[in-house]
Amino acid sequence: MSFTLTPSYDDHPRLATLVPRLRDYLDGELAEYEQRLGLGPETRYTREQLEPVWRRSRELGFYGIHLPPALGGQGLSYTELAVLKEEVGASGRILAHSVLGDMGGPLRVGSIFGVATDHQLEKYLMPVLRGERACCSSLTEEDAGSDVRRMRTIATPDGDGWRLTGRKVFSSAGPFADFSVLVARMAPAGDTDPEVYSAFLVDLDSPGCTVVDGDLPMSGQHVESDIILDDCYVGPEQLLGSVGDGLRIGLGRVTVNRLLHCPTVLGSARRALHLTVDFAKTRHVQGAPLAALQSIQHKIADMATDYYAARSMTYDALAALDAGTPPRVEAFMCKLFVAEHAFRIADEAVQIHGKAGMVRGAEVEWLFRRLRMFRVLTGSSEIQKNGIAKQLLAQPARGKEAA
Can you tell me which family this protein belongs to (predicted)? Predict the structure, then answer.
């Protein structure tokens, strides 16, 4: 894998066509749309502003492009999807997360098609693919993050259905979603195992369900909600899979999802590096470009090397996934390495920009905050280290193998 700030894919016919088209849309039509609306990274945008992006992205073939042709996609490999996600991250567009369907769209529901009933497909999933409905995922609670078994949201039997009570936090896309893929603990009955969890499709306008603003993350993005459930009824047709499948569904495709978060972050790191290179070339200090200083050159060299290393290992793991070999330990490594080094790139970007990089509203300042979050989101760096060590230590000792 060669290094460049503007990757080309001449050796891959499908990507050679898709990537230029995606860049044209991100840098052209979508950029103009955002400018017309006056959107910034911390703007509280509305459902009405997002829907045109969903529909237009679908018209262009990007919304749900990873899905099989039977569902209107192109059946992309994981590597191909990762390339497009990296381009989205590198674009700097505010609404880029809506182009492929990351924020409430097809990328949110793609993994549950295999367990959905015909009714659920018709009412919930297919409208998402068409850009008519949006969803969020609700797993995390105030005291149940990495340790999801601490969740306190309870599903109590009521006839053929259940009554949900509890509070979910950090439901991404919650402010403009129609329904949630929500996991709850089943209320124990008699000798029933108290560690049983199920997943439900919860309409967010149901009686007893309230969507409120969640804590504002350090990125300043208004994309998170808390979901408050107070005796909210869900019928048997809203049970996703079977009773007891909740954690499997909620945490399903963990290796895949862990890896597919990395390309978007790599795109943001690439954006920070690109902005820094341009700034160093055009910013003059003592009559010469900032880039003439060897200390600046060394920082940029380190940033580029970090990006190249993180990108190479991510795409190597994705190639293994496409080949049918789940890269379990490598996925932990990629999440850890990408998170730490993308943030280091953003930190150096701020340092090189100086005062211009510390001003609220500066793009590198926002990238710094966004990339800092990734060291915690979707499993902190410490959690990734735990996973790496667990995988390695579970392997037989070499001495015992020899014996």
Answer: Belongs to the acyl-CoA dehydrogenase family.
What are the tokens at 384? 């990734």
Burial of 70 (0-12, 13-18, 19+ CB in 10 A): exposed
Q: Which of 91-95, 290-294, 393-397 has the lowest mean pLDDT?
A: 393-397
Mean per-residue pLDDT of the chain? 93
> What's the average model confidence in pLDDT over 16-27?
97
Tell me the C-alpha distance between 207 and 192, whole Å: 28
Taking alpha carbons only, the member of 338, 378, 381, 311 closest to residue 79 is 311
Q: Which of 125, 111, 133 is nearest to 55 (CA)?
A: 133
| Domains identified in the chain and CATH numbers | 13-102 (1.10.540.10), 135-244 (2.40.110.10), 254-393 (1.20.140.10)
Please state, in angstroms and rounded to a whole number, the distance separating the CA atoms of residues 68 and 106.
Answer: 12
pLDDT surpassing 90 at residue 148? no
Pairing of strands 135-138, 179-186: parallel
CB 1 within 8 Å of CB 65:
no
CA angle 139, 52, 204 (to 5 degrees): 30
366 CB-side CA count, 13 A: 16
